[in-house]
């Protein structure tokens, strides 16, 4: 089992003891006491105090500045302190590879049987090749480490795969972590690749290295205790990605139905190289968001026909034969939300769509705009496309046999009553929540107004439409429904998943 360790980085002994209690309450297995963070640290007085106050097994680290820590003093005092920690009965002591030989001589190779020696190496710049990593691990083993620790930095998410390859072949217990947001996968998937421990922080102000998730995220969002070698990896590949609510939603659903998979936020730079690198069957499904929805079409071997017409894919599934199949659940999510908005619950199941014959004005000609325009056309609606860049509106309108408008035309466009408006621009989205694609006075031309923007839930457009007495449909409805479609593709459709 991979242990969950909370690094303690408080400036005082009292605060550190309080944080150790918080770590225990949060479900951590052990704490790492970072002695180098304590101001005015006095080993003989403070170490016993810390150990007495700590309710969990303890790893002691006294990291010098030359290895990324805060300790600036001499090595004899540092070694003496680590030896004292061993004598006082700590469970683990961390020593840097660069001085591990010297430390072994200092303690004459003697350490209490209970205490395990972690020999560590940190590279804050990049992740070396597999061969270099394997050599590093061999050097760490050769100095007598009980546990090997290698921490590197991810410049690209694909760098993490090299750490995984080395971890699965390591003959001794190993902690292999790749720092930065692009390396998050290494921290969450440690149990899948045999990692000895992974770090989870108490909160974002208490980090000891870049890219650490909170202990709560590890345990409650990613459900790390249930991750094992057979766990399938799913995730959202996007850039940026950390604002997404998809990991919370998908992981809750996976846990609910007991499907052995974890869903991660994957900060990517190049979709094709990501899919090529993580090509094992266990990396079985991905959501794609900005800026990869169009690239995804090229990356997939097979496509759902509507997704291909839209020219954007938001869901990729790796079939057992290794082939990548692309789908677009955005259009299903948006259209079913609009259908329900028009006709009340259950209307989307009617044989004839409530969109059939209706005039829908789609504002926006990007990924979401295309998805809604194609989806509405499929359902028999008459589609008008308005967009800031008029040429894109024309091109989309031509592709689906509709009419194109400039944004400014929306103020007076009223060929008939009872139209439907769908905003598929990012106007109104956080942080620019004052944006709206259409003047308030023109909203009364519509029966139903849908906004694809889901953060905030009630946008300015929806608020003003409601004030005009128009029926509104929130982007949250689309978000949940597109996720539901993805979940079905990822899991192959599990019976009983009717809780959305
Ligand atoms: P996209 O492909 O980048 O397209 C962005 C669209 O917004 C383009 O039509 C663009 O017009 C327009 N736009 C951007 N800034 C504008 C401005 N200042 N004034 C007028 N128009 C502007 O993005 P997307 O994937 O289609 O996403 C669009 C929105 O839908 C986003 O807010 C996204 O969060 C939301 N969305 C929601 C869901 C959901 O599940 N609810 C799913 C997908 C997307 P130009 O062509 O002139 O640049």
Automatic annotation (TrEMBL):
Domain Quinate/shikimate 5-dehydrogenase/glutamyl-tRNA reductase: 354-413
Shikimate dehydrogenase substrate binding N-terminal domain residues: 236-316
Highest taxon above the source species: Eukaryota
Molecular function, one GO term: 3-dehydroquinate dehydratase activity
SUPFAM superfamilies in the record: Aldolase, Aminoacid dehydrogenase-like, N-terminal domain, NAD(P)-binding Rossmann-fold domains
One GO BP annotation of this record: shikimate metabolic process
InterPro entries reported in the protein's UniProt record: Aldolase_TIM (IPR013785), Aminoacid_DH-like_N_sf (IPR046346), DHquinase_I (IPR001381), NAD(P)-bd_dom_sf (IPR036291), Shikimate_DH-bd_N (IPR013708), Shikimate_DH_fam (IPR022893), Shikm_DH/Glu-tRNA_Rdtase (IPR006151)
HAMAP family cross-referenced by the UniProt entry: AroD, Shikimate_DH_AroE
PANTHER family hit by this protein: OS01G0375500 PROTEIN, SHIKIMATE DEHYDROGENASE
Protein name: Shikimate dehydrogenase
């Amino acid at each position: 089992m991979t242990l969950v360790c909370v690094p303690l980085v408080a400036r005082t002994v009292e605060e550190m003891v309080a944080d150790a209690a918080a770590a225990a309450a949060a479900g951590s297995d052990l704490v790492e006491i970072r002695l180098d963070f304590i101001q005015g640290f006095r080993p003989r007085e403070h170490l016993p105090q810390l150990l007495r106050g700590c309710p969990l097994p303890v790893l002691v680290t006294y990291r010098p500045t030359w290895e990324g820590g805060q300790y600036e003093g001499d090595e004899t005092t540092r070694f003496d302190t680590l030896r004292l920690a061993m004598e006082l009965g700590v469970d683990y002591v961390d020593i840097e590879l660069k001085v591990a030989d010297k430390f072994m001589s200092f303690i004459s190779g003697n350490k209490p049987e209970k205490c395990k020696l972690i020999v560590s190496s940190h590279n804050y710049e990049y992740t070396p090749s597999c061969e270099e990593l394997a050599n590093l691990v061999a050097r760490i083993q050769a100095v007598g480490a009980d546990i090997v620790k290698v921490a590197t930095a991810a410049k690209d998410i694909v760098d993490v795969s090299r750490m995984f390859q080395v971890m699965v072949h390591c003959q001794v217990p190993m902690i292999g972590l790749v720092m930065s947001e692009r390396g998050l996968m290494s921290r969450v998937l440690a149990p899948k690749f045999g990692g000895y421990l992974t770090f989870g922080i108490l909160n974002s102000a208490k980090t000891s290295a870049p890219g650490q998730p909170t202990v709560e995220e590890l345990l409650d969002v990613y459900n790390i205790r249930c991750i094992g070698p057979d766990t399938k990896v799913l995730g959202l590949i996007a850039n940026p990605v950390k604002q997404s609510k998809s990991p919370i939603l998908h992981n809750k659903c996976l846990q609910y139905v007991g499907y052995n998979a974890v869903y991660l936020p994957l900060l990517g730079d190049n979709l094709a190289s990501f899919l090529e690198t993580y090509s094992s069957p266990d990396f079985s499904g991905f959501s794609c968001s900005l800026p990869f929805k169009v690239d995804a079409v090229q990356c997939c071997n097979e496509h759902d026909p509507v997704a291909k017409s839209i020219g954007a894919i938001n869901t990729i599934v790796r079939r057992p034969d290794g082939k990548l199949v692309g789908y677009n659940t955005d259009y299903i999510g948006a259209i079913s939300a609009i259908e329900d908005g028009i006709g009340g619950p259950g209307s989307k199941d009617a044989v004839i769509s409530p969109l059939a014959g209706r005039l829908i004005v789609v504002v926006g000609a990007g990924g979401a705009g295309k998805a809604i325009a194609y989806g509405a056309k499929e359902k028999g609606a008459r589609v008008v496309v308005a967009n800031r860049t008029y040429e894109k509106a024309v091109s989309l309108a031509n592709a689906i046999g509709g009419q194109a408008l400039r944004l400014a035309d929306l103020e007076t466009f009223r060929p008939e009553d009872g139209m439907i408006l769908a905003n598929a621009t990012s106007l109104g989205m956080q942080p620019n929540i004052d944006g709206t694609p259409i003047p308030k006075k023109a909203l009364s031309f519509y029966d139903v107004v849908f906004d694809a923007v889901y953060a905030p839930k009630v946008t300015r457009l929806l608020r003003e439409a409601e004030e005009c007495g128009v029926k509104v449909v929130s982007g949250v409805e689309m978000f949940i429904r597109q996720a539901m479609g993805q979940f079905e593709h990822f899991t192959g459709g599990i019976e009983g998943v009717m809780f959305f």
